[in-house]
Write a structure and sequence with these properties.
This protein is 35% helix and 31% strand. By secondary structure, it is of the alpha+beta class. It starts with a helix and ends in a 5-residue tail after the last helix.
């Protein structure tokens, strides 16, 4: 068998096996959180840890930070979006993901301090932190 024919056969075998491997692999990625603050800045790609006094503890990369609750105006859970390439709803799913239509949004702007604390406690209970 010539080298060229051997390489072609190997390449075809790998291409045929790739979809099967993709079907068997399961990747679970927890949603990410984003906070909007009073100054309209964002703290994003975080995990919520819990309340510590008057601050919300978050984990960003490998750093724990404390965000004063009184500065938080919005808490957003950015869910992972799954879509099948070439599927009938692929374009709609992509647009929904890009525009945040799948996000779970908690608007804290109109709440007083005590109500913000209560809402954050509720969020923490409803969405236990994923480690």
């Amino acid at each position: 068998m010539s080298l060229r024919l051997h390489l072609a056969t190997t390449a075809l075998a790998l291409l045929a096996a790739a979809p099967l491997a993709a079907q068997d692999s399961t990747v679970t990625v927890a949603g990410r959180w984003q906070l909007t603050l009073q100054d309209e800045s964002y703290v994003w790609d975080i995990r919520l840890i819990g309340l510590q006094g008057d601050s919300l503890q978050v984990l960003q990369a490998d750093t724990v930070a404390e965000i004063p609750v009184e500065q938080i105006t919005e808490v957003r859970l950015i869910e992972s979006t799954e879509m099948a390439v070439g599927g009938p709803d692929a374009a709609a799913a992509t647009m929904a993901a890009l525009t945040g239509q799948n996000d779970e949004v908690f608007d804290l702007q109109t709440l007083d301090y005590a109500a913000k604390l209560e809402k954050i406690r509720e969020i923490l209970q409803t969405h236990p932190r994923a480690r």
